[in-house]
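Retro notes - structure team

What went well: the batch runner handled both jobs without manual restarts.
What didn't: labels got mixed up in the shared folder, which is why I'm recording both outputs here explicitly, each with its sequence directly above its tokens.

Job 1
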Amino acid sequence: MSTQAPSIHIQGSISIAENRLIETLDMDIKAGTWSCLLGASGVGKSTLLHLIAGLTEHIRFEGSLTTNDRLPLEGRIAYMAQTDLLLPWLSILDNVLIGQRLRGEPIQQNRAETLLEALGLQNHRHQYPSQLSGGQRQRAALARTLMEERDIILLDEPFSALDAGTRAQMQELSAQWLKGKTVLHVTHDPGEAARLGEQIFLLQAHRLQTLDVPALSIPRPVDDPQTLACQGRLLRILREVAG
């Protein structure tokens, strides 16, 4: 396994059944950076995450998906889906530890406890998913993803169920915990992309566009003029695309 997070290059076309989602894709996800992917619903953002994650049963891909270190992606990815996918019969703590248990690895309960405390879930660790709010379940799913300590992190709207204050806090915590990882983050929130994106991609029908980012390290202050200017620019672009 690589000791450094890789870059990922995707080139080709993506279809589902007879529907060609992306005609010609040429995407370079830089090593060790946080990349945000914006675009309208249904344009293929989650499908692109599924392709990288190897969840390709419903996808037809014609092209190449490579890393700069030439090592396979298998075993190097942690993926957080739009839904929390927590196992209802396990406690929150056991859900966070599920990957290590399934792989027969040493259980790092102290690390899991630290993560849950940082995410504001320490008092809920012995509760079950049905006892938590949607935002709390989403934070538990984030803890499970961070627990994996993979080189490549795929996030599909990971903060969408959170209130504004908690969302900002989770963005900052995630940027800290995932520093140096290769992150691809699907979001519909231009403010979130402006805070976190070291690369920002806009996926439209049949094409991908790379957008400019502020010259500030992440997570960028929410009220910094460069962050606000980027947010406004992204919102204008998204409205133009929708129009």
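Job 2
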Amino acid sequence: MVDTCDILTIVAHPDDAEFGAGGSIAAWTAAGRSVAYVVCTSGDKGTSDRNLSPETLALIRQQEQRDAAAVLGVSEVVFLELEDQHVEETPEFRESIVRLIRTYRPEMVITMDPYRRYVWHRDHRIVGQVVMDALFPYARDHMAYPALLDEGLEPHKVKEALFFGAEEANHWIDISDTFAKKVEALRCHVSQVREFGAEDLESWLRDRYRRLAEGSGYGLAEAFRRVKLPD
């Protein structure tokens, strides 16, 4: 495990990080900022292929995630190996996220918006909420999970969080120069890309991120809800 990172990306499934923030991540690493991933599940349910077992699929998707992260210059990928579609908001899960935040001590955390309404994967909602709670107040308070102090994990205050998948975005990042890297990274997720049914992945993605850029002044953008955390 690396000592620390500038940006910690915490997602539910392999490919979530690339869809939500791959272009931004490519720009950050190109600028010399360190990025690490925490992937809460191994995506062991995400297939329509009835010949694949969950165990085999998990191994495939973990390797695809490592390959995609390497394309974007991500320094490390941690898998918590929770069961896909069975993520629950528990003190134990929250503690594991607090432990990772205190370990990596990032300035920024990227995750999925927990408040998106209606059609949104339940794992996404729960991961987003657990991350938000871990950021404030648990990661910053020494009396929260005091056993972490015995591990040498001191409280840490993250400066800001970016939530992707937000219905009310207030922050856009121009990915015009890194769109090709985003597409390259997403192509690594072979087992998932074929599930989308898109004949031309690049064109499908370009349309998606052109729509997300509307009103931002950018041609292609990733959209986020930006939350500044208390000092």
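One thing worth noting from job 2: The first strand starts at residue 7 and ends at 11.
We'll revisit the folder naming next retro.
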